[in-house]
Specification:
Length: 203
């Protein structure tokens, strides 16, 4: 397997056209749960010290861009990251349910050590295109949701620049589609906290 490709460097998709909407998908900053548990849509999880620093850096990164809007997942960690991006522009963060984290159903809040012993989790990571998430949202459904959200944003903010703060798997699903890759190739694309992915969508 190829080494994973970092999404910190933006990838451009679509035509550079005057009507193309420039959308930056941004993963929220780090939290204390990172690498330890599958937070999902569970209890509120705040940015940790590193996450706050990352959010501040994102604010500086986008400060000079002519942002038309800053959008966010409903979850606290995403909204806090989005607020840091919006502040230099005097913009109010707009929350979109379509940018929400994956609904991991029964797995929500469980530690990765515990999940490693669950055959269903193993199957999910081996074949995300067909695996079932018990009581939750399939990878295919996440991808459909992510692509529909991008299209709606592109139409609403046609020709302008937008930042949308969301979660790793939502971003990865959109990137896999843009790359023409299977959902089963998810490990080829790393989505670290505070990473940025650029999409140019011609409407």
């Amino acid at each position: 397997m190829e080494s994973s490709r970092s999404l910190t460097t933006a990838l451009t998709t679509g035509a550079r056209d005057a009507r193309a909407t420039r959308i930056f998908l941004v993963r929220h900053g780090a939290t204390a749960a990172l690498g330890h548990s599958l937070t999902g849509r569970g209890a509120a999880v705040a940015l940790n010290t590193d996450g706050l620093l990352q959010a501040a850096e994102l604010g500086r990164t986008f400060a000079s861009m002519p942002l038309a809007a800053v959008l966010s997942s409903p979850l606290e960690r995403a909204r806090a990251t989005a607020a840091a991006v919006a502040a230099p522009h005097g913009l109010r963060v707009r929350v979109l349910d379509a940018l929400n984290e994956v609904d991991f159903g029964e797995w929500t809040g469980r530690g990765f050590d515990e999940l490693a012993g669950d055959a269903r989790w193993t199957a999910y990571n081996a074949s995300r295109s067909s695996a079932i998430v018990p009581g939750g949202e399939s990878a295919g459904a996440v991808q459909t949701r992510a692509l529909a959200a991008l299209q709606r944003i592109a139409v609403e903010y046609v020709g302008r620049v937008v930042v949308a703060v969301t979660h790793a798997e939502v971003i990865r699903a959109a990137v896999l589609h843009a790359a023409g890759a299977s959902l089963d190739s998810w490990q080829d694309y790393d989505v670290p906290p505070a990473s940025i992915m650029e999409f140019l969508i011609d409407v």
